[in-house]
Amino acid sequence: MEIKPIDPANRAFFAGRVSGIDLTKPLSAADVEAVHRGMDEFGVLVFHGQKIDDEQQLVFSKSLGPLEQATGDIAAPQDRRVSMDLNDISNLDKNNKVLARDDRRRLFGLGNMLWHSDSSFKDVPAKYSLLSARQIPDADGNTEFADMRAAYDALDDKTKAEVRDMICSHSQIFSRGILGFTDFTDDERVKWAPVRQRLVRKHPRTGRLSLYLSSHAGGIEGWPVPEARAFLRDLTEHATQRQFVYAHQWKPADLVMWDNRVTMHRARRYDHTQVRDMRRTTLTNEVSSLEQAP
Ligand code: OGA
Ligand code: MN
């Protein structure tokens, strides 16, 4: 197994390409450690040519750590295409038909087009996400990733000191609201009530600090809401400048894995009449970001 930077000239430390590994087979302990080390270094790892099914994706994912459940999904249990161990990142219904343009599940899913970190709206958020491309449209539909370690490092000292101990409140109600999606049931409003997360967190293995931003963040403790949102918007604008961003152009059977503690990501547009079928497994962070102070 080998891991090389995808863009050695511009971003040698962000996004690596992994070769010499077959994800249909169980990994050795040495391979597992090499994957973790690759994640520590690059934050995003790309595996090409991995024709895997849900079961193989689950085995690979679980070999890296415990999974979280897809409790952030909006589909009713009887409408799910995949088990609760997987997030259905597709535009399909359970009969594999493309969702209508105005389908509630599709409109909710468009929230993925805003820069975010997975499950930051959960008390215990996500660690790694593993996204497997099963079917992709003819063009477009990239996924972009931004390096929140580099974004933190590039802040001036005054801002670093100011954000160091800030606590933000995160909810899917905030992020979807940005796009004008307000069609939540009372149960969903209770289930997705805001949670607290640090704005600056420390990676437990590398010790590096990163900005824990996400479109789910809708407030800063002790701040008036409009001022908090304007500030979070400024920080997000800073953190997603092109020098911090890797844009992944999907090929069939790609698997891309990212560390939600040190990255944000977003989906890009594609022709909504074409099939885009991706499955995501997600490792839990096991603890809140509140326990990962600098
Ligand atoms: C996700 C996600 C982006 C995409 O799977 O968590 O945000 O491009 N996906 O589908
Ligand atoms: Mn996501």
Distance between the termini: 33 Å
Shape: globular
User: What ligands are attached or bound here?
Assistant: N-oxalylglycine, manganese (II) ion
Structural class by secondary-structure content: alpha+beta
Topology:
Layout lengths: L1 E4 L10 E4 L9 H14 L1 E4 L6 H9 L24 E4 L13 H6 L16 E10 L7 E5 H6 L3 H7 L3 E4 L1 H7 L7 H6 L3 E4 L1 E3 L6 E3 L5 E4 L4 H15 L5 E4 L6 E5 L3 E5 L9 E8 L10
Parallel strand pairs: 2-3
Antiparallel strand pairs: 1-2, 3-13, 4-15, 5-13, 5-15, 6-12, 6-14, 7-8, 7-11, 9-10
The structure holds N-oxalylglycine (OGA) and manganese (II) ion.
Could you characterize the architecture of this molecule?
This protein is α+β, with helices and mostly antiparallel strands and 294 residues long. It has one domain (2-291): Clavaminate synthase-like (Double-stranded beta-helix, 4-Layer Sandwich). 24% of the residues lie in helices and 24% in strands. The protein has 8 helices and 15 strands. It has helices at residues 29-42, 54-62, 104-109, 148-153, 157-163, 172-178, 186-191, 225-239; strands at residues 2-5, 16-19, 44-47, 87-90, 126-135, 143-147, 167-170, 195-198, 200-202, 209-211, 217-220, 245-248, 255-259, 263-267, 277-284. A hairpin with a 6-residue loop joins strand 9 (200-202) and strand 10 (209-211). The longest helix is centred in the last third of the chain and has 15 residues, at 225-239. It is globular. The two termini are 33 Å apart. The protein binds N-oxalylglycine and manganese (II) ion. The site of N-oxalylglycine has 10 residues, from strand 5, strand 14 and strand 15.
